[in-house]
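Hey, can you fold this one?
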Amino acid sequence: MEFTLEFERPVSELENQIRELRQAGSRPNIDISHEIEALQAKVDGMLEEIFQKLTPWQRTQLSRHPQRPHTIDYIEKIVTDFHELHGDRRFSDDQAMVTGFGYIDGQKVAVIGIEKGRKTQEKIKRNFGMANPEGYRKALRIMQMASAFSIPVVTFVDTPGAYPGIGAEERGQALAIAENLEEMFKIKSPIVSVVIGEGGSGGALGIAVADRVFMMEYSVYSVISPESCASILWSDPKMAETAANSLQLSPNKALELKVIDGVIKEPAGGAHRYPDKAIAKVKEAIVNSIKTLQKDDIDVMMQNRFEKFRQMGNTTLILDTTDVEVKE
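Sure. Predicted structure:
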């Protein structure tokens, strides 16, 4: 069953008409191809018009679309001979964090991604894409293993944030993420990270300290989710739309601030409409990035990684002291 967002409904209604016409056109001696082409042209035009004017909140809704490709979809489509690895060797295995090794276009890679799940039971199993400390420690274990053998690391980010539960805090959630942030600068392998849906807070950054960081066109990457921001500022999660507008969630803004290195275009209407096309574009970006990074000396690459993150938010504050009274 297809899920339709409110602003997609006019397009969805036309697409339903096209499906009905195609069924009717399959009968003998009936040619309604011109009518179908006219409706399809109208759909294409509406999609372009709607998606050019998306609000930050609509973009957030798109990033969470239940039919949008998830981490396991990308792994199944672009990673061959994938072998999943489990456990952090300290506490347990976190099902929200998927890790393992495989091949992308013949290149051996370590793959790490946060998985939300789709059906109810799977969502519970994956903790709705909110990783625990053991998930981040598992991810770091795999990255350090990859580093020891100079294997490139690919990460897929899709999370509203790290799990904020009492148990997670007791087991050192903040420390686990902080250790990842520190240790990822020491990984002696190319790291490519793609925000495929939501990129929320330190939960996202915990696997996204990378040489190349990309965002999908209709993904979001923010210091906090709109709902959490609204809860803090107005004590009302229903103000999430207002918070989303203030957070400036567009990939173009992240690119302007040099938080990311590039935006991966999605098919018309979003990745959920044409998942195979979207996944192919992500694969292309990953393959090209790894090839480019492998040309650099490893020490130079690691220094560039460090400098890139050090420069984020590096602005000069100029104070106007014209009317300031100085007391001696």
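The first helix runs from residue 9 to 25. Let me know if you want another pass with a different chain boundary.
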